[in-house]
Design a protein that fits this description.
single chain, three-stranded antiparallel beta sheet, globular, signal
Length: 339
Amino acid sequence: MSRRSRRGGHRARPLAVLAACLLVLAGAPGAFAHALGHAAVSGRRCIATPAEYRAAWNARQVRCVSPALFATTHTRGDASLYPRGFWYAWAGSDTNLERYLELRKRYGGRPPKVGIGVLSYVGYPGLDTWSVPTDLAVYTLPPGVRALVPSFETWFRVLDERFGHTSAYPLAAQRDLVVAYSRLRGDKDVVGAFQQVTGCRRTELLAGAAPSAAIGCNRSFLGALAAAGPSPYEGGDSKACFANFQSRYRGSRDAAALRGALYQCQDAGFLNTGVGLGYNTYANPFVCEPAARQSVRERYTGREFIVPNTRLSALPEHVDIPLDLGTPSRRGFLHAGYC
């Protein structure tokens, strides 16, 4: 085991602490307003509106960004942040937006490195063949709407608030799920944690296989998917999906079952960390090493949040920035590294 992989293996415990701190910040009265009042770095005014962000993007400028701005990638032409039926949309923060400007400045002459780099940083799997036209929405939230840190415990709190206290998500199962993701050792990562909990083999998942018994997924996980019904990607609805799981699932309500509900109902895929940071197995665009030589720690990316899924027209301000994805056959940098 190399020094690099040893360093990455102990990332989970600090991440759990960091996530807890972020959750406190997200929920603290006045904390967000306080952050807005300090949207400047070294006397320079930070980007404060989506229009200003687009102007900086077009000019290939690297500037600080106000924490009032968020970003979500979506299929070109969509009317909402996330596909219809999703309760929440996944969002990047100001720190992500600043990194995207760095990508744009560094690789503006090779646009696919920028577009694919953004999607990789967000946490998209399957980028070797991804060809769906995709935009980056940069926006502000409606008054009174707060972003949440998507830790596992945040999700279960949100579910309690929506459906009331139920026995659908036992505390012991929540604990086992969190522990599985907070005790990563050596070169084990969140995909390994997903395999440990659900049985689904990482090799097949990363190759694009759907969850099934054929790739080792266990009975609890598959039973949860079946009970929850169609995901919003398949025409379902997140809230109905969770309600179905709560009322129809008859198996053991263990960590695998809870992970299945989050996977099916709210797009918490196998790359999801459960601590409010992004992750990918592709090469991190900001680490000048091939993916195989990057540590687990180096493959964590930016901060992520969840916000209510909203029609773009209902947002106070937003712009869409088209991402140039190039052609799939010319994405060797995903594995060989960006620089």
